[in-house]
Amino acid sequence: MTLIEIGYIAEEVDSLGIKSLVLYEDAAKKIPLSINYKKMVIYTNEIVKMHHAEIEKLKAEVAALSAEKNALRTENNSLRATNAALQTNQTEFGAQLNALSKRVQAMEAVTGNR
């Protein structure tokens, strides 16, 4: 049975700028040799904490946007009801105006015939 090892490539980790996790061949830190896996856990824990904080921030943003959406939906429904009432009033006023116009025309016809 052969043992398969899985790990990170030191050059890739170095290219990401995570130099504290890389063990180098030379003192000038020019040639990546391997990964310091003992530090990896600490580093990944910090990354998980950062991601967790970001997730919580995004959850709060989603909750705020949902609340805003619900408030806008309520306002929209209210405006629709107001608009419907205004349209009803406009129709009624239009009918009243037509009736008044006909009465004025009838009165003018009566007074114009005298």
Provide an overview of this structure:
- The chain is mainly α and 114 residues long.
- The protein has 2 domains: 1-35, no CATH class; 39-113.
- It is 73% helix and 6% strand.
- The protein has 2 helices and 2 strands, in the order H-E-E-H.
- The chain has a two-stranded antiparallel sheet with strand order 1-2.
- Strand 1 (22-24) and strand 2 (32-35) form a beta hairpin.
- The longest helix is centred in the middle third of the chain and has 77 residues, at 37-113.
- The termini are far apart.
- The mean pLDDT is 91.
Which properties best describe this structure?
114 residues; mainly alpha; two-stranded antiparallel sheet; 2 helices
Radius of gyration: 39 Å
What is the topology, as strand order, of the major beta sheet? 1-2
Oligomer: single chain
β-strand number: 2
- The general outline is rod-shaped
Strand content bin: 5-15%
Task: Compute the number of helices.
Answer: 2
- Give, in order, the helices and strands: HEEH
Please tell me the overall pLDDT: 91
Helix content: over 70%
Structural class: mainly alpha
Major β-sheet annotation: 2 strands, antiparallel
For the terminal residues, how far apart are their CA atoms?
122 Å
Query: Regions with pLDDT < 50 over 5+ consecutive residues?
Result: none
Number of domain units: 2
